[in-house]
Design a protein that fits this description.
The chain is α/β, with parallel strands linked by helices. It contains twelve helices and eleven strands. The strands form three sheets. The protein has a six-stranded mixed beta sheet. A three-stranded antiparallel beta sheet has the order 3-10-4. Strand 6, helix 6 and strand 7 form a beta-alpha-beta unit. Helix 2 runs antiparallel to helix 9, helix 4 crosses helix 12 and helix 11 crosses helix 12. The chain is globular.
Length: 370
C-alpha cells in the first residue's frame, strides 16, 4: 500500500508522455482496437501525449461500455490537443486495489480509485457508501463530483495530497441484500449471515443489521457464493448480471437502499501537469461526457438487470413502508456516527457529510425542476 505520508519523497519511474512518434501512437491504437475501442494514429508529432489507462473491468462491463469506451474515442479524436490512450482492461496491470498505486508510482496515468477498495487512502470518500442518501445515479454522481472538483473538500483532503486528480465519476446507488438461501424481510433475518461487502462504510452498514461483512471485489463474489464462503452479497441490480450472479442467488430485497458504490477515474497529477492547455480541455470535456453517459447507462441497467434476475428465478422481497422504517432505525444513525468518528480523529467527517447531503439535495431539486 502507498505510505500515507504523502509528502515523503519518492523515486519515480520515467513516464513516457511526450516526444511520442507515429510508430508508438499507432501501437497504442492497435492495442485499443484489439479490445473493441477506437484510437487514432497521430502521425509523426512531438506534441502527442500518450496516456496509459488501466482498470479491472472487462470491456463488456458498463464502466467500460458507458465510460471508458466513449472517453477514449473522444480523447483520441485528431485535432488540436491530440492525446493517445493505451488501454489495459480486465486487470491486466493489477487488481482494483493495486492499480492506483501504479499511478502514484508513475507506471500509468489514468485509473479508477474506488474509495470502498481504498479505505486506507480515501476513507472520507466513502461518504457515498452511507445508507439512504441518494437513489438516483445522476444525482449521486453530480453531488459526488462537486466534492471531488478542485477546491472541493474531498479533492483537497484526499486526492490532491496523493497526487490524484478526479476526471469522471460513476455512482451505483441503491444497494440491496441478496442471498442464496435465506429470504431477508426484517433486520432480524440478517443475524448470522455472512455478506459480501465492497468495504469501507458498507461494512458498517451490514454489521449494523447483524450481518458479518466480508470485504471482497465484485469479481470474487460468484466464487464466494458458489462455494458458500458467503451467504449473500450487498449489490445493486445493475452489477448482478455482468458477473452472472443471478445463477447463484435466490432472494433479493427491493427498496432497502443500503448504500452506494462510487468509482472516480483519476489521472496522476504529474501527468496532468505535463499536458498542454488544449489537451487538458480535450480530456476534461471527454470526462464530463463520460460521467453523463455512465449515470444514464446505470439508470437503464438497473431495471434491465432486475428483469433478468426475475427471469432467472430470483424472488424479490418488495419492502413495505413499515419494513423500510424498521431497517431505517438501524441504518439512519450510521451517517452521523460515521461523521463523528472522523471528527474525533481530527478529520472533517461532519464537513464532508454535510457537503454531500447538501449537494444531493441541490441536484435532486434541479432534477425535479428539469
Amino acid at each position: 500500500m502507498v505510505d500515507d505520508d504523502v509528502h515523503r519523497a519518492r523515486r519515480r519511474a520515467p513516464r513516457p508522455r511526450r516526444a511520442v512518434r507515429g510508430v508508438r501512437a499507432c501501437a497504442a491504437a492497435a492495442l485499443v482496437s484489439a479490445v473493441g475501442l477506437l484510437s487514432s494514429c497521430a502521425g509523426d508529432t512531438d506534441d502527442t501525449a500518450v496516456l496509459k489507462l488501466a482498470d479491472s473491468y472487462a470491456t463488456t462491463h458498463m464502466f467500460a461500455r458507458y465510460g471508458v469506451e466513449g472517453f477514449i474515442e473522444d480523447v483520441t479524436e485528431q485535432g488540436p490537443g491530440e492525446v493517445g490512450i493505451e488501454y489495459y482492461p480486465a486487470g491486466q496491470l493489477g487488481s482494483a486495489r493495486d492499480i492506483v498505486n501504479l499511478a502514484q508510482a508513475g507506471s500509468l496515468e489514468i485509473t479508477p480509485a474506488a474509495p470502498a477498495y481504498l479505505s486506507d487512502q480515501l476513507p472520507l470518500s466513502s461518504v457515498t457508501d452511507l445508507p439512504g442518501l441518494a437513489d438516483d445515479s445522476c444525482v449521486a454522481s453530480a453531488a459526488f463530483s462537486d466534492l471531488l472538483a478542485e477546491g472541493g473538500v474531498l479533492y483537497e483532503e484526499e486526492y490532491a495530497p496523493r497526487g490524484l486528480r478526479p476526471l469522471w465519476v460513476a455512482v451505483i446507488p441503491s444497494y440491496e441484500i441478496m442471498t442464496a438461501s435465506r429470504k431477508v424481510e426484517t433486520p432480524e433475518d440478517m443475524e448470522g449471515l455472512t455478506i459480501r461487502s465492497s468495504g469501507g462504510a458498507m461494512d458498517t452498514n451490514i454489521g449494523s443489521l447483524g450481518g458479518a461483512p466480508v470485504s471482497m471485489t465484485a469479481a470474487d463474489a460468484y466464487e464466494a457464493l458458489s462455494r458458500n464462503t458467503v451467504d449473500g452479497i450487498s449489490f445493486p441490480y445493475a452489477s448482478v448480471t455482468p458477473y452472472k450472479l443471478e445463477e447463484v442467488l435466490n432472494y433479493s430485497t427491493k427498496g432497502l437502499n443500503l448504500g452506494s458504490f462510487a468509482i472516480p477515474y483519476v489521472i496522476a497529477e504529474d501527468a496532468w501537469q505535463d499536458l498542454s492547455a488544449k489537451q487538458r480541455e480535450q480530456i476534461t470535456t471527454a470526462a464530463d461526457d463520460a460521467s453523463q453517459r455512465l449515470c444514464d447507462g446505470i439508470a437503464e441497467e438497473n431495471p434491465a438487470s432486475e428483469e433478468l434476475m426475475r427471469e432467472a428465478g430470483i424472488t424479490f422481497t418488495e419492502l413495505t413502508d413499515p419494513q423500510v422504517e424498521e431497517f431505517a432505525e438501524y441504518l439512519e444513525p450510521l451517517r452521523r456516527q460515521w461523521a463523528d468518528e472522523f471528527d474525533a480523529a481530527g478529520r472533517p467527517g461532519t464537513e464532508v457529510l454535510d457537503a454531500y447531503e447538501e449537494a444531493v439535495a441541490r441536484h435532486s431539486a434541479a432534477a425535479e425542476e428539469g
